[in-house]
Amino acid sequence: MSKRWLRIGLGVLVLGVWGAVIARALHRPGSDAEGLVDRPTAPSPPAATSGDTADAIPAFPRDPFLDDRAVAVQHPTATTPPASSRKAPPVPPPPPPPTRAWPKVTYKGTMRAKGDPSTTVAFLSVEGRDLLIKQGNESNGLGVVRMSADSIVLRWSGEERVFARR
């Protein structure tokens, strides 16, 4: 039973709000005219010659929700040059890519499977995380160029550095 009264109450509230909105749109304070029919309308703009869509928008004298504060919009038609004569500003060159700082790398050594030198991997600590990378491979932008038992050459953002074993 209470849901029915809630629905009725909300329906009345919605109708009241819409009634106030419509009354506000139709009533202009300080005017004898009631309704939209008696209000003057702006003359339609001349045919668009420049191809701009802004020229085709009519200049209404007012917004019904702004009362007398609205100002008519004037669109320039003769002063706007045609689109074909306008020159685009030059496009600036893209900024250079930011240089990334080298992560903290510690070379801990190499590991390989018995009898197979092609499975040799470098054992690194990168920013505190242990990492195994094969020569020629890359992980998170860090690539192994060369490795030996006591040092390793790594590539990061196109720059190569040598790290000694610790």
Give your account of this protein's structure:
This protein has 166 residues and is an alpha+beta fold. It has two domains: 80 residues, no CATH class; 60 residues, SH3 type barrels. The protein is built from one helix and seven strands, in the order H-E-E-E-E-E-E-E. A four-stranded antiparallel β-sheet has the order 4-5-6-7, with no helix packed on it. A hairpin with a 3-residue loop joins strand 5 and strand 6. The radius of gyration is 37 Å and the shape is elongated. The termini are far apart.
- The total count of helices amounts to 1
Number of domains: 2
Radius of gyration of CA atoms, rounded to a whole number? 37 Å
Percent helix, as a range, is 10-25%
Record the strand order, biggest sheet.
Answer: 4-5-6-7
> Which residues form runs of ≥5 with pLDDT under 50?
none
End-to-end distance: 81 Å
What gross morphology would you assign? elongated
- H/E topology pattern: HEEEEEEE
The profile of the biggest β sheet is: 4 strands, antiparallel
Strand content: 25-35%
Mean pLDDT over all positions: 76
Write down how many β-strands occur, each being a DSSP E stretch of 2 or more residues: 7
The helix-and-strand class reads alpha+beta
